[in-house]
Each structure stands twice: as structure tokens, then as C-alpha cells.
Amino acid sequence: MQNITLDTITEAVINHGDRGRSHPRLYEIYTSLVPHLHDFVREVKLTESELQQGRNFLNQASHHTQEIPTGEIHLLTDLLGISELVELLHDAHRGTESNLEGPLYVPNAPERQMGDRLGIDTEGDSLFLSGRVLDLNGQPIANALIDVWQPNSKGIYDVQEPSQLLGNFRGRFKTNKSGKYMFETVVPLGYKVPSSGPCGELLGLLGRHPWRPAHIHFKLSAPEYAPLTTQIFIAGDPHLDSDTTFSVRSAIVQLQKHEALDELKAHNQSKPFYTTEFDFVLKPATL
């Protein structure tokens, strides 16, 4: 590889190695990515100082913070639309739409029972969320596992705020024999993605706002069915049409307000509360 030039460097990088014999899929991705990156560098005539800025940005994005305990690389792919593009590319459009997991999922959430409250938030408006988990033929799926997480009524997740107990507004439920699930939570608030780090700085430089509309995250699984990760969004949120992660699709729910005294008593509430329903449809694992 002597006398590397502008005309030969891309092919030299691609051909350096065993050309996919060890890992064919990795090599397929690699041989597409490298030419795209090299073409980008040529197109914008990237300078050494700009390259160093990029390196610094990625180094900073990998640092763990209180706002994003796992670092901002996941957030970056969300903000660039890459995460949602992957979802759209592989969503089979059968069953409930898949959607972003986001950077704040925590495995092994507390196990909860049907009807349990998801977390503690004395200032939030209570929301009773219910529905069923069904197959493509509309038949109920019993014992489906529903893993749910959301921010509180101020738009803050438990891992971002020391005053919240870990596991607050997180939980794992199982559907009953009718495929039904039901739990009590609070109406979540839309929020700004963390803006004190490099991703927030990037949004500011691009003149982009950092807002996400109010939403609740779900992971669902059941034997013989494909796992599903998705989100449902709250109708009326001002940022439904400009989500900074580009992930709002069709899973939008209307909230119904209840304030009659008999309803308050029946639900053990001292102030108006909300209800909504959403059915999840899982596709077989073989599709």
C-alpha cells in the first residue's frame, strides 16, 4: 500500500483484511460505510480541526452523566433520525407499530400486579391505562409480559432525579387470561432531551428544539410471538408534529377526564383523573 493517494485510499481501506471471510455481514456493512464516509469527507472538504472537533464530540457523548447515565451515543442516533429509520425499515406493518426504546430503559423493573400504581408522584394527575394484548386474529394473549416505563408529571425519569426511588414509574405486568392489562400511573409530561451535554449543544447550533412530546414506553413479549418495543403518545401535546427524535407515528391516545364525585369515589381519587385504553397486537415470531 505504498503511494496512497486520494484515488486509492478508499479501496485500500476496504481491501485491508480478509474481505469478509471471518464476518461476512460485518464486511458488508463496512464496505458500504467506508465509501460513504470517505465521500462525505471529500464533499465537505473536511479540515483537520473539524475532524478533531468531531472526535471531541464523540468522546464527550460517551461520558456518563446524571441526565443520561449510559452516555449520549444512543441519544445521538435518536436525534439524527437513525434510530427511527431502522425501526421503519424493519417494521413489518403487521401488529402494533414498533418504536424507539430510547436511552433510559432499565431492565428488571419491579414486578407489579394488575391495577397497581406505577409510581409515586403526589402532584401528578392520575391516569388509569388499560387494554388488551391480542394476536393478529384479535384473540387474547394470556400471560404476555408488559414492561412499561415513563417520566413523571414533570417529565423526569427516576434515573435522572435522586429524589425519586429507582423503579419509580417502571413496572412489569402480566396479562390475564383475557389478555387484559390495567395499571394506574400519572399523565406524563413532554420533556426536553438532556441539553447540558454535546447533543444539546449540537441542537442549539442547528437551531433545533430539544422537545419530546408526552409518551409512555412499552416492551411486550410472549412465547411464540415476536417481541415488541414501542411508545404511545398523548393527544394534544404541542410537540407531536415536531418530536426531536422523529418517532411520532400513529400510536396516539386520547385521555378522558373524570371529575364527577361518584367516579372520584369509585377510583379512590381526591381530584379529577384521566383514563385511556390501548390494545397491543403481537405478530407470531415466525413472521
UniProtKB/TrEMBL annotation:
Domain Intradiol ring-cleavage dioxygenases: 129-157
Keyword Lipid metabolism included in the entry's annotation: no
Organism listed in the record: Stenomitos frigidus AS-A4
Matching SUPFAM superfamilies: Aromatic compound dioxygenase (SSF49482)
Pfam families: Dioxygenase_C, Dioxygenase_N
UniProt keywords, alphabetically: Dioxygenase, Iron, Metal-binding, Oxidoreductase
Domain of life: Bacteria
Gene3D superfamilies cross-referenced by the UniProt entry: Aromatic compound dioxygenase
Family: Belongs to the intradiol ring-cleavage dioxygenase family.
Cofactor(s), names only, from the UniProt record: Fe(3+)
PANTHER family noted in UniProt: DIOXYGENASE, PUTATIVE (AFU_ORTHOLOGUE AFUA_2G02910)-RELATED, INTRADIOL RING-CLEAVAGE DIOXYGENASES DOMAIN-CONTAINING PROTEIN-RELATED
Protein name (record): Intradiol ring-cleavage dioxygenases domain-containing protein
